[in-house]
């Protein structure tokens, strides 16, 4: 395999539960594009994300290689992979302010407190959340929380994004807006994205290749 | 009457049975501390008891020792618990320790302290294992390890017993902290396992555990039995001196003891205040670190260190039990030998007839107080089901007996009994034990109770079951494992109680625990070994019975 392949390379990935094969996937996700993995619940969608992020549950075994920009990360610890995760819930830490959540995600390479806060403020402004820094996550609306979660993930400078049905908890009008935001940010930063969902509209909005797993009903 | 209607009695009963003895006890400690107790000839209020207290030689040294050992033990216990949780929660080694928590918690403080003493003393099992091979000496090293003046042995004994307690409390609080998903997020942001836990899970967890941590601080700074066994002797900790004054045949010393008990109360309060200061510093440091974004991804060495330290505390308790066993049957046992030269059961055969009564008393009081506490807890929990929420005061009330130093209200209760001419009885001891048994039993049962899927009750009710039928035939059987485990914990707490039994039993009713601790200064290791093992026997039996009954109830044909 040439080392120069950019994007996320999923080579002959197979996940098994006991002896039974749960899913197999072989794909290349180019920078700035979204690979949508669709399947019914129980088909192993989230298990696939767990494998890519480095959190495969002990009940599963997997084979195949995961490479990002040519670097093999299959055996790396979760914290060394550079995977940015977004879940159904925003999972903002409730004991930190919005600003605290963002500062927590910002890499330590941004040194001074002033520079760090400026970077966090900048991220909030980009998400149309200017001035929300001191707010407590509990006081935010669902859509605002989702945007803070996205800002938090992006601030950590991930190398690729893993999205686990991140729009399913949002109300319909917000959902379309959130999709546009996430996909355009990923495109702007040329991040490869793997999205798992059971919502066809997600796949359409992602406008990329779609892989279906599990037996169709 | 429905269970819900009857359960209205629960909360008021809990307030009376826990708050009553503490409130009255404190009152009857305060009065003699200011010179007033007509039964003992104190007819006017005065500051004389405090003047006598302040004139006691070495008082501030004793007080300082209590503060130092209490805070150091609490700090080490919390640090070790935190580190172990951060490094290993949810993994296989963690589950191995988790399985040991019940038995470790049931191990009475006194037995654990004796075991540790037999392990680390200069002629103990540890130096026997090293000698003469590693130390090159056939005589015990000339070191003051047990009863050392800095209280290090006391601190070690407290840490070994408090870590299992804190771990159990943390495990009960875990579901609220959403640990698994927060760890995923922090790991995906690049944080190492321990840092991720400390920054994202620990703050929520600690808030849930805070009263338990305060209880550890207060208990460690006022403990009596462990201090009598492992603590410094010249001077001893304040708590130990108080108990000696209160046990003095000269009744006028009771005024001094009461004043001292108030000093102990102030001291434990001060320890908690200092702790709150530690909390502030810790929190400030954590928030700053989190905002700086340092990831600490390479925590392998620290994780292993946490595991080793945790294993060491478990090992020390288990090896201590082994030391007790060996001594209890040792005949001739010269120093460097790891095992006794001859085995003798003479110690046991001499003791058995004398053990019967204190064992019987401990078992009876333990069963009664555990059953009583279970009823009380069930009443309160059923009431909470009916109202849909736990009253705000529940946690503070339950932790009150664990946070107020025992001496501060038990002295008063003892004097009250003296004043009222009450003779110590199994009933009075049961009521006093209930004050300590109820909180532990409640805390052990409540998580399982609130995790119960109440739709089962709705299904049963819709099938035509009355409220009593639903309780007896559906809910309690489904929760039988938790109910039995909480009974075993309550029983173990009662058996291990030293000061309440000593003071309220007033020498007329003794249990295996008061007898065992009374031997501490005697120093006959064969007798101590036998008594400490006998003390462990009851809680162990309790856990065994609970486990067997649960298996019987849940057996599959």
From TrEMBL, chain A:
Pfam families assigned: ABC_tran (PF00005)
Keywords, in A-Z order: ATP-binding, Nucleotide-binding, Transport
Top-level taxon of origin: Bacteria
Domain ABC transporter: 5-213
Keyword Protein transport attached: no
Gene3D superfamilies (UniProt xref): P-loop containing nucleotide triphosphate hydrolases
GO molecular function term, any single one: ATP binding
Similarity section: Belongs to the ABC transporter superfamily.
Protein name, per record: ATP-binding cassette domain-containing protein
TrEMBL record, chain B:
Classification via InterPro entries: MetI-like, MetI-like_sf
Subcellular location: Cell inner membrane
Residue ranges occupied by any ABC transmembrane type-1 domain in the UniProt entry: 359-546
Broad class of where this protein is predominantly found: membrane
Keywords attached to this entry: Cell inner membrane, Cell membrane, Membrane, Transmembrane, Transmembrane helix, Transport
The protein's name in its UniProt record: ABC transporter permease
Keyword Transferase: no
Highest taxon listed in the record's lineage: Bacteria
Classification via Gene3D superfamilies: MetI-like
Keyword check for Transcription regulation: no
UniProt topology in membrane: Multi-pass membrane protein
PANTHER family documented for this protein: INNER MEMBRANE ABC TRANSPORTER PERMEASE PROTEIN YDCV
TM regions (residue ranges): 12-37, 67-88, 100-130, 150-173, 211-231, 251-278, 304-330, 362-382, 397-420, 426-446, 482-507, 527-546
